[in-house]
Each structure stands twice: as C-alpha cells, then as structure tokens.
Prior knowledge:
The chain has helices at residues 23-51, 61-67, 71-99, 103-130. The protein is mainly alpha-helical and 150 residues long. It has one domain (25-133): Fumarate reductase/succinate dehydrogenase, transmembrane subunit (3 helical TM bundles of succinate and fumarate reductases), CATH 1.20.1300.10. It is elongated. The termini are far apart. The model has no long low-confidence stretch (mean pLDDT 86). It comes from Cryobacterium psychrotolerans.
Amino acid sequence: MSTTIEAPRSPYARAPRKRGVNWEKWGWIYMRVSGVVLVVLIFGHLFVNLWLGEGVSALNFAFVAGKLTNPFWMTWDVLMLWLALIHGGNGMRTLVNDYATKPLIRGILKWAIFASVAVLIILGTLVVFTFDPCPAGQPADLLPSFCSAL
C-alpha cells in the first residue's frame, strides 16, 4: 500500500531551475555559518566590554574611542556589523518570500530590505573607519580630556 503526499502549499509557484547558482541553498548555508560566527563575535564583544576590566561602569566615550583606534577591534566590529546586517537581511528576505503573496509587493519589500542593509553597512563601516575622537582645529574645552595632550 502506498501513500501519496501532497505538495506543500506555497504562496507562489516558480518553475524549478535546471542550471545556475542555487541562491536559496547558499543563503541557507550562510545563515548557519554566520550564526555560529556571530555567536563567537557577540559573546567576545560582551566579554571584553562588560566582564573584563571595570565592567559596565567603564563604558564611556574614552573606552569606545580607545577601541576604535585599534585595528583588531575595528576589524572585529566591522565583521560583526556586516555579518549581523546581512544575516538579518537574509532572514527578512526569507520571511518576505514566505508571506508576501503578490509578486510586485514581494519585489518591493525585497528591494527595500536590500537597500536598507546596504545603506546601514556603508554608514556603519564609514563610522568605524573614519572615527576621530580628537578632530583637529576644535576648541580644547569641547574635546575629551584624553585629547588635551595632542
């Protein structure tokens, strides 16, 4: 006796692709790999910022400025930013594919997700790499105390 299982319901039907890159497979793999790497990056970030040294009371402008002058922490923060934003954007894309039934709305939502992720990645990367806690030509009373020696 054989039982036939019906095809799963889908909000829209697409013809299966015969050749080319399987973007859904690579998106699925990216979510798993980036999730594991993000766990390490986030817990490392929390460990250094909250548990080492003086704890949360030490978090101030000088602490952040000191971290953002170190190339290791700049790379760490940018990697965390990029992975988190792309991971979240890919998750939102999956939700849109699952629940948006009209092709036009689905396309608009996916482009909006892509645009917002791209803008946030560009702005976040610019902030990390162009951050200057002691800008030249500013009045000394407006600068942090650690800039007075410069």
